[in-house]
Design a protein that fits this description.
The complex is a heterodimer of chains A (about 190) and B (about 170).
Chain A lengths: L7 H10 L3 H23 L2 H17 L10 H36 L11 H19 L3 H11 L5 H8 L3 H18 L5
Chain B lengths: L15 H7 L5 H12 L2 H16 L12 H14 L4 H12 L5 H22 L11 H23 L2 H6 L1
Classes of the chains: A mainly alpha (about 190), B mainly alpha (about 170).
Bound molecules: zinc ion.
Zinc ion binds next to helix 3 of chain B.
Chain lengths: ~190, ~170
């Protein structure tokens, strides 16, 4: 493989492969927040998101011995995260049915919006906006949801989202367009 | 390519230009071109306006801060992972072998995991006292299976990753 400049993450991961645990700490530092936030918005339950994120990093660590920098590290990371999130959502849906999943989601996100020196009114407006967006995103089909989250909050390129979700770039563009179309329809009154 | 009389993106499959415009990720030339198009295309103008509103409204969906003990929990799990693998003595040579056998990896890994498990159970029931082998269970074999799956995921990325992505590696 012609690798002119090895990306920083791959470099760190290769050091982890050689037994440098400090480099694993640096990788964790770089990606902990984006992975957890992605999972949190995906499963809409903070404790579950953190549990899944633990699994993501554990899997990365476990795979270190045979790691080769064949693809962008973040793509691999988000692919593992997406798989875990999509599986969790599907399992839960099968297990409990959509209704109780919604209840669980709400409970898991209830601590979400807290006062940060705002007036009660500001806080209420913020809470209600948050709740509307949360519900609208939760209403998207899982794959559309994952694509939107990576596009909006992680600023990923279409090609990278395509690699994470194992589909073509044009499929991602179409997924995104449909997803935003639904969001525009659901949230039109907020504009 | 887009020219001054660009085809309406809503009439073609180029809706990404609209998304890129609203996420402010269009390069200046394309941005200017799309703005000229919008000047006489009400549909795109309305769509861009609605999409920009949504784009900004989505900022309200903030994620919660990460728990302070996240790393501590993770390292504790890693530590547990590092200190139990008696069975790994059985597994390591098999794993090295599998590295060179990608096509057979899934099938062989299942077989190898089963074999390792069988050895462990054999040893456990016939030779050693159970308390000497407390941490060896199906879960460990499952964990090893997961690690292999994750590497397979990385392998798949290599074979399918588009050119643009390889350049960023
Ligand atoms: Zn138009």
């Amino acid at each position: 493989m012609a690798v002119a400049t090895l990306e920083r993450d791959a470099e760190l991961m290769l050091r982890v492969r050689e037994g440098d645990t400090h480099s694993f700490g640096l990788l964790l530092e770089r990606h902990r927040v984006p992975v957890i936030h992605f999972l949190c918005r995906m499963v809409q339950n903070q404790p579950v998101a953190e549990e899944l994120a633990q699994e993501v990093f554990l899997r990365v660590y476990r795979s270190r011995a045979n790691y080769e920098p064949t693809a962008k590290f973040t793509t691999w990371l988000f692919r593992i995260a997406s798989h875990l999130a999509l599986n969790w959502i599907r399992d839960k849906r099968h297990e409990r049915g959509q209704e109780s999943l919604d209840a669980e989601v709400q409970e898991g996100m209830s601590r979400q919006v807290q006062d940060r020196g705002m007036s009660a009114e500001q806080s209420l407006v913020r809470q209600s906006k948050f709740e509307e967006i949360r519900r609208a995103i939760d209403g998207l089909p899982e794959k559309q949801r994952a694509a939107v989250l990576m596009h909006k909050y992680d600023e990923m390129e279409y090609s990278q989202i395509a690699s994470v979700l194992e589909c073509s770039e044009s499929a991602v563009k179409s997924l995104l367009f449909r997803a935003y179309e639904s969001l525009r329809a659901r949230l039109a009154h907020m504009a | 390519m887009l020219d001054h009389k660009m085809t309406c993106p809503l009439q073609t499959d180029n809706t990404d230009i609209l998304l890129d415009y609203c996420s402010r990720s269009l390069d200046p030339d394309r941005r200017a071109m799309f703005e000229r198009h919008m000047a006489h295309c009400a549909e795109c103008r309305d769509m861009a306006s609605a999409q920009s509103e949504i784009w900004m409204a989505m900022d309200a969906f903030e994620a919660e801060p990460v728990s302070a003990d996240f790393d501590q929990k993770l390292y504790a799990r890693i530590d547990r992972l590092e200190h139990v693998p008696v069975w790994d003595k059985f597994w390591a040579p098999v794993r090295s072998y599998l590295q060179g056998q990608p096509a057979w990896k899934p099938a062989l890994s299942v077989a190898a995991a089963s074999a390792a498990l069988a050895v462990v159970f054999f040893v456990r029931t016939d030779v050693m006292a159970p308390r000497l082998m407390p941490a060896i269970n199906v879960q460990e074999v499952v964990e090893a299976e997961k690690a292999l799956e994750d590497l397979d995921m990385l392998g798949q990325l290599e074979s399918e990753s588009p050119q643009s992505e390889k350049e960023t590696i």
